[in-house]
Design a protein that fits this description.
The chain has 135 residues and is an alpha+beta fold. It has a single domain, classed as Beta-Lactamase (2-Layer Sandwich). A five-stranded antiparallel β-sheet has the order 2-1-5-4-3. The longest helix is centred in the C-terminal third of the chain and has 18 residues. It starts with 15 loop residues before the first strand and ends with a helix. Bound molecules: flavin mononucleotide.
Length: 135
Amino acid sequence: MEDITEEEYFIGSDAIISQTDEKGIITYANRAFGEVSGYKTTELVGNPHSIIRHKDMPAAIFMKMWETISGGQAWNGIVKNRRADGRFYWVDTEILPIKDEDDRITGYIAVRKEASRKDINETQETYRKMLETQE
Ligand SMILES: Cc1cc2nc3c(=O)[nH]c(=O)nc-3n(C[C@H](O)[C@H](O)[C@H](O)COP(=O)(O)O)c2cc1C
């Protein structure tokens, strides 16, 4: 793992898709996820998504994310992730719970696309303020 840098990595137009079990352990990562994260898809599978967590992400965002999806609802948000080489990338993310026939959650699926500059700028400011009050 390389040191963190202030350099942005610009993602392509392919959707970045991953699936997890009910605990959040990655069970599937598409090719775009491998390319964008800088990890092999085989390295992503078996790990939680926190391996791509960026230090600029407030903990409260993930708490709300988990509260929402474990409650059976879809979660949408703008997420800053860290690449294996230390660079960062922003993604417009949707996470959906996967349920069995008895409505029990068996896992989650995330679909991420390039975030708009407007969303990135606004979110960046919000997260910066959240981090300031968190510490
Ligand atoms: C389907 C799914 C996708 C997720 N995608 C990301 C992601 O792209 N980046 C991220 O930092 N956390 C993501 N998470 C949240 C992580 O599981 C984790 O809660 C977060 O990285 C914070 O780490 P921590 O809970 O160890 O503090 C995702 C969770 C699920 C269930």
